Prior knowledge:
Blueprint: E1 2-8, H1 15-31, E2 36-38, H2 50-56, H3 64-76, E3 79-87, E4 94-101, E5 107-112, E6 118-120, E7 126-128, E8 133-134, E9 143-145, E10 148-152, H4 161-169, E11 174-176, H5 183-201, E12 204-207, E13 211-213, E14 219-221, E15 225-227, E16 233-236, E17 245-251, H6 253-262, E18 270-272, E19 275-276
Parallel strand pairs: 1-2, 2-3, 4-8, 10-11, 11-12
Antiparallel strand pairs: 1-17, 3-4, 4-5, 6-7, 9-10, 12-15, 13-14, 15-16, 18-19
Helix pairs in contact: 1-3
Amino acid sequence: MARVAVGQLTSTASMAHNLAQCRLLIKKASQAGARALFLPEASDYIAGSGEETVRLVKPVHESEFVLGLREEARRERLSIHVGVHEPGLDTQRVKNTVLWIDDRGEIVHRYQKIHLFDVDIKDGPVLKESNSVEPGAEIVPPFDTAVGKVGSTICFDLRFPEIILRLKRLGADIITFPSAFTVPTGKAHWEVLLRARAIETQCYVIAAAQVGRHNEKRVSYGHSMIVDPWGTVIAALGGAGEEPEIATAEIDHGLLRKVRMEMPLRRRTYVLPQHLDVYPEI
């Protein structure tokens, strides 16, 4: 058993402000006995425009936000999974990434968001993430941590089961969805998708979410949660966003083994190494 914490905050365009919020979450997670803290997408900043998103970006070795988290991870001996921005391959767009900072303060894992949020919601926001963000091109294999083998995705990736099933096949125990869901899409699909992803992969799902009003244009749904491999929500936060908060839960590897043994998901892929059965493996 290993205790984890999922954190929720309201990022703004000020990295100093956002770092202060995250320091509070780190303190709460440490006091709760968590081995790891999972923070939302874009915890370093949420800008008011694509141009500002590009203007604010810094490499991780120069980012006051990332440097601050690395210092806190070392001090508290707490691993931190956090969504940030990094410079893109050109000067017009950035990378939307998630980092794993281990309990020594070292960055040991990085995943770049593959699926970008380009939508026009009726009676809601029109968002085209690809204007300022470049998509990733790789599913990064799960990696070993003190709380289990973690597979990373980000926000809109939640809607694409292919990436999740691939992470499960590569051995994930925990799949993460650091997010900044809009309120309309959050009300409609957030919990049902998270529970479905846990059920179909038989993994723990940890979804740290932005919450509340970031600026005049952006409001996030919140409702961070942890779901067990049976699809039960075992920790959850609300959508008020009044102050940074955490929820905690135990990662029970005995339950992982039990669910997978008692409800085996034998996919109809290959019956022999060279013989396709019904459909190809993802």
